[in-house]
Amino acid sequence: MGFCLFGNIPVAILKNRARHRFERVATVDWDVHHGNGTQAAFWTDPGVLTISIHQDRLYPHDSGDRTERGEGAGFGYNINIPLPPGSGHGAYIAAFEQVVLPALRAYRPDLIVVPSGFDASGADPLGRMLIHSGTYREMTRMLMEAADALCGGRLVMSHEGGYSAAYVPYCGLAVMEQLSGIKTPIDDPFLPVFEKYTGQDLQPWQQEAIAQSAQLLDAIR
Question: What is the torsional sign of CA 45, 63, 5, 50?
Answer without folding.
Answer: negative
